[in-house]
Amino acid sequence: MRQLGTSTNYAYEQPYTQRGKPLPYTPQRRRSRAFWWIIALIGLAIIVLAVVLPVYFTIGRHSSSNSSSGTGTGSNGSGAGGGSGGGSAQPAPAFNGPISGGQGSILTFSDGSTQVYGNPFGGMWYFDPGEPFADYAQAQSWTPPLNESWRYGVDLIRGVNLGGWLVPEPFIVPSLFEQYQSGSCAPPYNAQDEWTLTNCMNQNGNATQLMEEHYQTFITEADFAAIASAGLNWVRIPVPFWMISTYSNEPFVPHVSWTYFLLAIQWARKYGLRINMDLHTLPGSQNGWNHSGKLGPINFLFGVMGIANAQRALSYIRTLTEFVAQPQYAGVVQMFSIANEPWMPVIGQHQLQNFYLEAHNMIRNITGLGQGPFINIHDGFSGMQLWAGWLTGSDRIALDTHPYFAFNAPASIAPPSSFVQAPCSGWGPELNASMVQFGFSMAGEWSVAPNDCGLWVNGVGLGNRVEGTYPGSTAVGNCTTSDAWEEWDADYKAGLMGIALSSMDALQNWFFWTWKIGNSTAGRVEAPFWSYSLGLANGWIPPDPRQAVGYCAGTAGVPMNEPFDGVLSAWQTGGQGAGTIAVDQLASYGQWPIESMNSVSTSPYLAPSDVVRLPQYTPTGAILTLPGPTFTTPSSTQTADAGDGWVDEQDQGGYWTPIGGCGYPDQWVAVGVAIPTGGCGALERRAGGEEVGGEGRGARPTEAPLGR
After folding, report:
1. In this structure, is the dihedral angle defined by the CA atoms of residues 111, 114, 115 and 117, taken in order, positive or negative?
2. DSSP 530
3. Bias regions of kind Polar residues — which residues (predicted)?
4. Is-contact 450 463, C-beta < 8 A?
5. Would you state the pLDDT for residue 702?
6. Cys staple from 153: which of 182, 568, 579, 616, with CB 3.0 to 4.6 Å?
7. Whole-angstrom Cα distance, residue 142 to residue 231?
8. Do the Cβ atoms of 307 and 19 come closer than 8 Å?
9. pLDDT tens track for 293-320
10. Which band of pLDDT confidence, cut at 50, 70 and 90, is reported for residue 206?
């Protein structure tokens, strides 16, 4: 959930064969539903599945021949502490039930509980213990089953975010944060983001245990079933980089959230939902907001540690790509949002575009052209027009924007009905134009919120614009009506329903922010505009999102100009021409690492002569791989092939890691600090004959993947 227009900165495709080795899992021909029901009834009492999700991290499994230990310099915060996780999750309860069904069938959840499947849209769930990676489920009759290709530009993404789950945010899970606002966690040490939350948890208990309790309870399999039953077909799941590793000075709980992302893949597969995996946090913070992990300055592509943090981010993007591009997962995780909401006004347009191109080339060298997830990039809050024509000939890059009314200044207390036409006249034309001028474009976040009322919507203790308690704002009224959702009358709800329908029609491909808002310690939802499930249950979110089709031109009376005709160019969907980026664009955006930094009036300027002296990491570290789930049956010692976490065996370069002996500054607080000396910067290392550049590939940007 983002503050558009404001700044709090301080300062699918089908499974495919892996290159160089045979496909480890090939789905069998799909049988008829009757066949599966017969098998299910025969085997009802004997099928038992133990699902064990071991949380371990294989370090050095694919390490380069010149790998270091990956440890840094200790107390300066650059050590790779936490890189090798330990422990294991408990096995899920035994499975015993049918393997497929539709409306009215009995669901057996992974925790052993049961429920009648209430999907009125022809959706079919599917989970067969003998084929745990089979992609036969279908969310609704109009949505392609997982084993059929998604037609970008034709099939509509109607999705929700699972915000606040694997990346907790104060306004989404307030009760998690409310208990850490006094005593030793009184301001300014109170829980405001995940950094301070885990610090406070460790002062008062065990952060690992407490965070796992949150992961276990906030989102469950029942939510995935409900999402499909609500007519939705995608989920965008924010994930943190620390589910892979942390550095020694970072308090985040490492690894544990990966267990629950694996469960998310399993549950999404069961109900036919596709996943947009959203890397919501980046080392050093890409926007300075609480949901980046740490509220404060931006240290990604900016400041003294800006390059090193970006190198580290590329390593995490690499590990995630290697995992989700495996055929066992490619049919479910069909999109990868590589950087959530980088704040371009600080980072800079050229710098962000250089990073995006480097990430694109690295990802497509792993997956091969036309394979692997769609790459999703955020517009940096610059507007979509700025990206028109960028990287023509790339391989499946989607452009993401996050439009909101809530953070407009000045704020408004006008009734929701006054906002109904705005998405049609504003957001719709911009998205349509971007589909033509850039390629596949979408809204990764939006809500029905007409203002920023609600507990901690702007952050802990930051107030709101309506009442003038947000810094720099002027009061225009109060939040009494906005917050009292239990008392909203039919007209108020109808206005919110109008915003929902006009937004869905205008945006076309979208993810609502967010599926669920948890109760505060007062026992009620205190940010009601932001909860899809609450609106669905109480009448301001449509029970069938297809109701939105044609709403702008019809009910809202705002026909959208130049509607997209549903035909994307072949290269934009991984076909002919993908991977043939124009030479001039490669020349303009192909510098990596970046050679200049943005100039921001509130921060010391780093000239190009300074940028080449900035500390960097070296690509000699042991590679971190992610484990898959283990599916076994009591009657057999055989397990399904879950992959080894690394789809491209040719990708053997080292991980970015700190250079031994370099005195790195704190990677989260490095704007305006002195540039360290000691041979850690590109200029000094080149002078010493060392190669510095693309991960494991020497002093050059990653080469673009070969064209067709």
Report:
1. positive
2. G
3. 1-17
4. no
5. 73
6. 568
7. 10
8. no
9. 999 999 999 999 999 999 999 999 999 9
10. very high
Cβ within 8 Å of residue 639, ≥6 positions away: 630, 631, 632
The domain that contains 417 carries what CATH number?
3.20.20.80
Task: Read off the pLDDT of each residue in 350-363 and give the average, rounded to a whole number.
Answer: 98
Instruction: Note down the domain range covering 228.
Output: 156-167+202-563
Task: Render pLDDT for 374-424 as a digit per residue (tens, 0 to 9).
Answer: 999 999 999 999 999 999 999 999 999 999 999 998 999 999 999 999 999
More confident residue, 217 or 69: 217
Burial of 491 (0-12, 13-18, 19+ CB in 10 A): exposed
Q: Has residue 595 been placed in a domain?
A: no
Q: Give me the active site residues, please.
A: 341, 445
Q: Which of 288, 308, 289 is nearest to 297 (CA)?
A: 288
Q: Looking at the domain assignment, is residue 609 inside a domain?
A: no
569, amino acid identity: S
- 632 confidence band (pLDDT: 50, 70, 90): confident
Tokens of 624: 């971190």
- Rounded distance between C-alpha atoms, residue 73 and residue 660, angstroms: 6
* Count of Cβ atoms closer than 10 Å to residue 666 Cβ: 15
Gap between the Cα atoms of 696 and 66, Å rounded: 10
What is the DSSP code (8-state) at residue 687? Answer: H
CA distances (Å), 399 to each of 1, 276, 402, 422, in order? 17, 13, 10, 21
Q: Look at residue 359 in the predicted model and tell me its pLDDT.
A: 99
Measured from the Cβ of residue 154, the count of other Cβ atoms closer than 10 Å reads: 10
Go through 499-532 and write b for each residue having 16 or more CB atoms within 10 A of its CB, e for each that does not.
bbbbbbbbbbbbbbbbbbbbebeeeebbbbbbbb
What value does the mean pLDDT of the chain take? 86
Examine residue 621 and state whether it is found in any structural domain, yes or no.
no
In one-letter notation, the amino acid at residue 582 is: A
Number of domains in the chain: 1
Q: Which of 278, 282, 206 is nearest to 242 (CA)?
A: 282
Query: What is the residue-wise DSSP string for 573-586?
Result: GTSTTTT---HHHH
Task: Identify the top-confidence range among 22-26, 39-43, 214-218, 550-554.
Answer: 214-218
Are 672 and 601 spatial neighbours (Cβ–Cβ below 8 Å)? Answer: no
